[in-house]
């Protein structure tokens, strides 16, 4: 059921006019894929997120479907991360065996054909970046993993392989750190990928290169700029370049102290951070290869309670991804997983699912199954980017002090109008917490110079406050999605173009041309335009349990 709300113009005085170009600007991005907003799943936990053919995880499948039906295409997935660099494929293993240390760290992941069944549960249009073990320094191990995936995953879905995870972080047990640098990495990577492609009979480039962890500063060990200069693209195996992004961290006390909501939810901080990758994007483009962010999230070492498990994470995801798309990152894979004790002995978190996960597939010490408050960001992104494959994005700089608190993105969709913006995303990053005094501040935007004195339609991504951690209180277009289905009546607002209001700590998608899609699926009761009613817990698979870093494991 779709509810249309006609809003009277609020008495907030003259609205702010944004410098939105009426024709395609020079900084307009390349076309953005409907699957731009994708996911990286920690390699050892992919079957926990999706189950297997005998026990699929319906919660995960339903949540991914909510994204797919809005985007017109499923997100891509990268089974990868630190656990891949101690993985082994063994055809005699039914599903997955994890070997742990006494402190709960996974030091070996052995998987068999059942592991690959998890990939087959997803939409048959889903594309995968499949990570291979590079850290154990055994080409035979990597080749066996590649052969298993190549023989099992349909060729149209196996978009690329990736060799290793964050090779710039390898320790002395993985490589000779005294000689491990960009040139050494490039030489070894080209040799391995050429050998694997030859063994599989692959002619076209099929590997994502690099996947480095460090921010690309002058002290970084290996960057895209470095390996391009060292000739990595000349080997004929590079399909894309990748680097990872983690703006903050809980890996040690010093960085943990900086990982706060006020630091995270800051538009100026977000754009300045993503700008660090512009030279890397340019280096990839110089050899005709796309640049992706193969793994990213807001706070490394598994997030932070009170920060990444709040509605604030949704605003951060939306702003980071939209700005990333605007600077020609081709795809971004938000990482999902669990606390990995081997990452740091100084980290703030203890075993359980990561506090930054967009949803929790099964019960753990972290939480019950269900969507996180951040899940709604993917619904906003799906509808903002759209399904046409003809969408381009340009950031809009708000005037004055709004520049640091208002993220604004004009979206051109050639399927609607190739010469004028079709949609606009407004993200008000001004901090309003649950305990903040009323009234809630708001920004009023005057869009009449762009569309005249008529009206526009819009959808809201909202919550009672930035620090809201109850996913049933967080809504997209009036609906909450905690249990994988829409709860509440979908609400599409109609507002005067001269008075589009965005509350503090809220996001709005404005449809300037064309109708707002009625993509919601729920018809159950809930308050229109606000928080939906509470949802039931998500479904879990009936899989067997096995010891893991949580004290259990599902295969």
TrEMBL record:
UniProt GO MF annotations: hydrolase activity
Pfam families reported for this sequence: Glyco_hydro_79C
Xref: Gene3D superfamilies: Glycosidases (3.20.20.80)
Signal peptide location: 1-15
Domain annotation Beta-glucuronidase C-terminal: ranges: 408-509
TM annotation in the entry: none
UniProt-listed InterPro entries: GH, GH79_Enzymes, GlcAase_C
Entry keyword set: Hydrolase, Signal
Region of interest called Disordered, as start-end residue ranges on this chain: 521-555
Superkingdom of this protein's organism: Eukaryota
Keyword Hydrolase assigned: yes
Gly residues compositional bias, start-end: 521-540
Name under which the protein is recorded: Glycoside hydrolase family 79 protein
Source species of the chain: Calocera cornea HHB12733
